[in-house]
Amino acid sequence: MDDVVTKDGTERRMDNDVEATLSAASADPAVLAFEALCEEVALVRRAVAGLAAERAAIENPDYSETLGQIMRSSAAMAASLKALADMPALRLTARDWGREIATAGEQVRREDRQELADAKDTFRQVAHDLAASLRSARSAEKQFQWLLWTSAGGVVAGLLLWAFGAVRARGLPPAPCPKAGNGQRK
């Protein structure tokens, strides 16, 4: 049994026998064309109804969880990008980088020059202290030598005086003894 749309637009069911009778009875080509058209329209209508039923039967998955994950990932990415954008290093141009490097290099060179000057002053002070110590040591050594020569001279002078005194004493007459009374020796 087929649904057929009639000329007045109403739908009706036709048995295959009835259709065969109608087609034989009316051999008019316009009627035959209209009947074929009605059959095609009915066929299209059934196809559209089947598609609608199939579409209603298709189960659409729930994407809310996946969309939530995508939103959370997007929010985390946006926060990371904002943190990167807030970094001052990323806002600098090549010219700014060059200036920063030159400034840092000048600062390091200035510190190095200061450290070299401090080391030079320290070296000079140590050299001056060492020279003063050497002069003091030389002076102490000279004083020690002077003391030795003076002591040696005193010893020599004492020996000479003693020797001179002994030689002179031999050539003098004996000294009188106070107990003997006459000044002669016993």
Structural write-up:
With 186 residues, this protein is mainly alpha-helical. The chain is built from five helices and two strands, in the order ββααααα. The protein has a two-stranded antiparallel sheet. It is rod-shaped, with a radius of gyration of 69 Å.
What is the strand and helix layout of this fold?
Blueprint: E1 2-5, E2 11-14, H1 16-25, H2 29-57, H3 64-86, H4 88-91, H5 94-170
Antiparallel strand pairs: 1-2
Instruction: Report strand %.
Output: under 5%
The chain-level structural class is mainly alpha
Low-confidence stretches: none
Give the helices and strands as they follow along the chain: EEHHHHH
What is the global morphology?
rod-shaped
Q: What's the total count of β strands? A: 2
Strand count, sense and closure of the main sheet? Answer: 2 strands, antiparallel
> Helix coverage percent of residues?
over 70%
Q: Quick summary of this structure?
A:
The protein is mainly α and 186 residues long.
Name the descriptors:
186 residues; mainly alpha; two-stranded antiparallel ribbon; 2 strands
